[in-house]
Amino acid sequence: MEIKLQQGAGDIAFGMPVEDIVGRLGNPDEVENIDNAADESTTVLRYLDLGMTFFCEGDNPELACIDVTNEDCTLFGKPVFDMEERAIVQLMVANNYTEEDADEEDWGERRITFPEANVDFYFDQGDLVSIIFGQ
What we know:
Blueprint: E1 2-4, E2 8-9, E3 12-13, H1 18-25, E4 30-35, E5 41-47, E6 52-57, E7 62-68, E8 74-75, H2 85-94, E9 101-104, E10 110-114, E11 119-124, E12 127-134
Parallel strand pairs: 1-8
Antiparallel strand pairs: 1-2, 2-3, 4-5, 5-6, 6-7, 7-12, 9-10, 10-11, 11-12
């Protein structure tokens, strides 16, 4: 599946309602409904075999964010999960995403953020383990 920053993944697009995601991918392995302090709701659809989690927000939930752990996914046509951190940064820069921020998370993973692309790359002991991106 191709990760399309600020657009979606494969033929799943940001802004797509839950029903359309389920219509294309089938029933998720897990569904979770979360209400936050501002009375906003998020519907979380987990597809374990796909290595993808979709976060849909609002009263009529629409796709707002995707968490990818599927090592077969590509970014800009490259097998991103096979790349080292430095190569991923170079790939982002080559595609005109130059603003970068890095931090060590409390739970031990390293996060590289490209705010222009609304994407976070998470690394555990140097290996890419997750990509979280939104519109």
